[in-house]
Every structure is written in structure tokens, then in C-alpha cells.
């Protein structure tokens, strides 16, 4: 049995909710790391499947695992509890459906030791499907240097793969941890807040195998996630301009139509709708929930129509002829 150190160099933070399908290989990939001086905090957020039993079985074999078993409170509450519980100065995030490369922790700890001015380091990822086979995303790899990340942040682009990140605990706590208002995009909001406080980087190696499958959160809640990310970017713009962040103390985000009033600036709602419209065009779920109404509003106020005629055809493939007709009429009316 591997023994737990009372003063570990690293805390690994994993939140689990009904993750039985991929949980065992995710846990094992952490236990198999070439760097072994860590505590492994696994919080079961009120799972109703066999996740808790899987966690307890692994914990019985490896005392580095410290289970936290409680009722469901949601991911943001779980992440903040894990952060506050961590005994080490460094925290590595890990999700219950991904797989770490065996040298991930070793590489990231070495980077942070060599770059004391950096508070966060991530890595590139290898995208896989539910069976572990390659998954083609068509995207580009994340920026590597802090300077590149600043440019990406200004454009509203993605900065880090959350389950591939290692950060300094005190810096993240210093900006208030994860904010509840940004549910499903709490990581993106955090990176944008940290961008003003510390340097961040990505190691240009694929140290995490990132899994894609139909039931994952980013697929199910794509509209809410995309709206939240767009508002987080508007909050970043306000901070960069030396203005107060109107989202700082929110528990929930307001409807898009109220954003101009919240930020005290005309055009914020329109910018958010434009970004959301671009971000959800390929999502079946978004075309069936409130995302569709955001697209219609974007078109009605004269927004960019790029890609929207193809969305009409996509709606027909999704079995939504009535919505396809509504979008066609909105596009033709301009």
C-alpha cells in the first residue's frame, strides 16, 4: 500500500458526480504518476451511481486518497471545498473522465519551480472519445506563453484546459476561488481574473487525454456555458479598463437583456449575443433551448449572419423544421 505524506508537495483535486463510467481509469492515471508526493482529494458530490464505492475501493488500497463524501452541492461548491481543503501549496485539477499522462505532475511541478513568477501552468491535451479513440475537434492548440495568453484573452479565446491545470493555491484563493455565478464556465472566469494577478502558461506537450462524449457537462449546458463565458469576457474588459467588475459579488448571472444596465454601458448585451451566436451554431442542445432565441435576437438587431444559413439546414437535420422556418424568415427579413 502506498503511504500518505502528512506534508505533501501537491494536492490533486477531483470532483465526482455520477462518474462511474470513466472514474477508475481516471483515478488510476493519477496514482500511476512518476511524481508521487501528493494527496489525492476525491470529492463525491452526492452521486447516485457506484462512484462512491469506486472511490472507497481505491482509498482502501492507497492512503494518498482522501475521500470527501457528502450530499450534492454542485461543481463550483465542490471545487472551492477542494481548494480550501488542500494541504499542499500546489493544486492539480483532474476530472473524473480524463486520463493523465504518467509524467504530467513531474513536468508541471518542474515548470512552476523554474518559473516562480507563474501561478498557473496547463498543458496541451489529446482529445479522445468515450472509447479512448482519437477525437477530431478541428481546433488549434492553446497558447503557450503568458504573452500569447494575453493576446488570446483580448480576443475572447480559450486559455487553459481545466483538468490539465496546476496552480498555486494561495494565488487562486487570493482572487476568491471559483465564482458561483459562472456555473459551467467557472474555470474561464477564474483564468481571466488570474490574468491580472499572475503569469500563466501551457506546456506544449499532451499531458492529458481529454474525453468527449454526449453526456458531458460541456455538451449538455452549452448555451449557459457560452453565455457565461461571454459575460466573463465583458467583466475582463471592464477590469482592463480600470472599471469595477459588476459580476464580482453575483451569485447568479442576469438575463442577457439586463447586461447593459449591469455594466452601465450600451452594447454589452449585443456583444454577448454575437459571441453566443457564433459559439452555439453546431450544438443540437443549444438549438433546442434558449440558445435559439439568442440567435434570433442577434439577427433581429442586425448582427453578423455568417454561418446562419447553414444553421437553417442544420436545424432541419436536428428535426426542428419550425425553428428552421423561423430562422429563415428572420434572415430573409434583413
Describe the model.
- This protein is α/β, with parallel strands linked by helices.
- The chain has two domains: 10-219, Spore Coat Polysaccharide Biosynthesis Protein SpsA, Chain A (Alpha-Beta Complex), CATH 3.90.550.10; 243-332, no CATH class.
- The chain is built from 15 helices and eight strands.
- The chain has helices at 20-31, 51-61, 75-85, 104-114, 146-155, 169-174, 186-194, 217-220, 222-240, 259-263, 268-279, 284-288, 290-300, 308-317, 321-332; strands at 10-16, 38-45, 65-70, 90-93, 99-100, 118-128, 166-168, 199-211.
- Helix 2 (51-61) links the parallel strand 2 (38-45) and strand 3.
- The longest helix has 19 residues, at 222-240.
- It is globular, with a radius of gyration of 21 Å.
Amino acid at each position: 500500500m502506498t503511504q500518505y505524506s502528512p506534508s505533501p508537495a501537491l494536492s490533486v483535486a477531483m470532483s465526482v458526480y455520477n462518474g462511474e463510467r470513466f472514474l477508475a481509469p481516471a483515478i488510476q492515471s493519477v496514482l500511476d504518476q512518476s511524481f508521487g508526493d501528493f494527496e489525492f482529494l476525491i470529492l463525491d458530490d452526492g452521486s447516485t451511481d457506484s462512484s462512491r464505492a469506486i472511490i472507497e475501493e481505491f482509498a482502501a488500497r492507497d492512503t494518498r486518497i482522501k475521500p470527501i463524501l457528502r450530499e450534492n452541492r454542485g461543481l463550483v461548491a465542490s471545487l472551492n471545498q477542494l481548494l480550501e481543503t488542500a494541504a499542499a501549496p500546489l493544486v492539480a485539477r483532474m476530472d473524473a473522465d480524463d486520463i493523465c499522462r504518467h509524467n504530467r505532475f513531474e513536468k508541471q511541478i518542474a515548470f512552476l519551480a523554474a518559473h516562480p513568477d507563474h501561478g498557473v501552468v496547463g498543458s496541451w491535451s489529446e482529445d479522445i472519445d468515450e472509447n479512448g479513440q482519437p477525437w477530431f475537434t478541428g481546433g488549434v492548440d492553446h497558447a503557450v506563453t503568458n504573452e500569447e495568453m494575453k493576446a488570446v484573452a483580448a480576443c475572447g479565446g480559450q486559455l487553459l484546459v481545466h483538468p490539465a491545470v496546476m496552480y498555486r493555491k494561495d494565488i487562486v484563493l487570493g482572487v476568491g476561488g471559483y465564482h458561483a455565478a459562472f456555473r459551467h464556465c467557472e474555470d474561464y472566469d477564474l483564468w481571466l481574473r488570474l490574468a491580472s494577478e499572475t503569469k500563466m502558461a501551457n506546456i506544449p506537450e499532451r499531458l492529458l487525454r481529454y474525453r468527449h462524449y454526449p453526456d458531458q457537462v460541456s455538451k449538455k449546458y452549452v448555451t449557459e456555458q457560452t453565455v457565461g463565458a461571454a459575460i466573463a469576457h465583458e467583466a475582463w474588459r471592464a477590469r482592463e479598463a480600470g472599471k469595477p467588475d459588476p459580476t464580482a459579488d453575483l451569485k447568479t448571472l442576469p438575463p442577457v437583456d439586463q447586461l447593459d444596465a449591469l455594466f452601465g454601458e450600451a452594447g454589452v448585451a449585443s456583444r454577448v449575443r454575437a459571441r453566443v451566436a457564433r459559439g452555439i451554431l453546431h450544438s443540437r442542445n443549444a438549438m433546442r433551448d434558449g440558445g435559439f432565441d439568442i440567435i434570433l435576437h442577434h439577427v433581429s438587431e442586425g448582427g453578423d449572419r455568417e454561418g446562419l444559413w447553414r444553421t437553417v439546414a442544420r436545424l432541419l437535420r436536428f428535426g426542428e423544421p419550425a425553428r428552421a422556418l423561423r430562422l429563415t424568415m428572420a434572415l430573409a427579413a434583413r
